[in-house]
Every structure is written in structure tokens, then in C-alpha cells.
Design a protein that fits this description.
Elements (H helix, E strand, L loop, with lengths): L1 H26 L4 H7 L6 H8 L7 H10 L10
Helix pairs in contact: 1-3, 2-3
């Protein structure tokens, strides 16, 4: 059942990334809408759902853009 463990680990990783993006975003004083607009999104859907670790998650391009906007290292999202 290795596949089940991998799926769980990936889900936990997505949740950790979303949680860290939210923590850093709030520390920088940005709203979900402000961050969404700055990465080229027209709504907060991707930000809100990815921060919650639900149906959607950030892709690498989005994480890179977010790290630039939040002035942090992209690896900060994985710690």
C-alpha cells in the first residue's frame, strides 16, 4: 500500500505549503485578493482553496511568483 502512503504524504505537503503561504502572506499584510491579483488571478479561488489545502494547490510557477511578491525564499513554503 505504498501508493496510499504517497497520496497521504502529498496531501500533507500541499496542506503545509498552503499553511505557510497563508502565514507569510498575513505577516506581510496582504489579503488573498491582493495576492491573487499580483500573481495574475482574477479571483481568490486558488489562494483560498490552496491555503486551506482543499481541492486546489499551487503549481511551481505560482509558488515562484508568490515568493517574489512576499519577498521570501520559495523553500520557506516547504518548511
Amino acid at each position: 500500500m505504498k501508493n496510499t502512503n504517497i497520496k497521504l504524504e502529498v496531501l500533507e505537503l500541499h496542506q503545509k505549503i498552503g499553511s505557510n503561504v497563508k502565514k507569510i502572506r498575513l505577516a506581510k499584510g496582504l489579503t488573498q485578493l491582493e495576492l491573487s491579483m499580483q500573481i495574475g488571478q482574477k479571483s481568490t479561488t486558488i489562494i483560498s482553496q490552496a491555503e486551506l489545502g482543499s481541492k486546489k494547490h499551487f503549481n511551481i510557477e505560482q509558488l515562484y511568483k508568490i515568493s517574489q511578491i512576499l519577498e521570501c525564499d520559495i523553500t520557506d513554503f516547504f518548511n
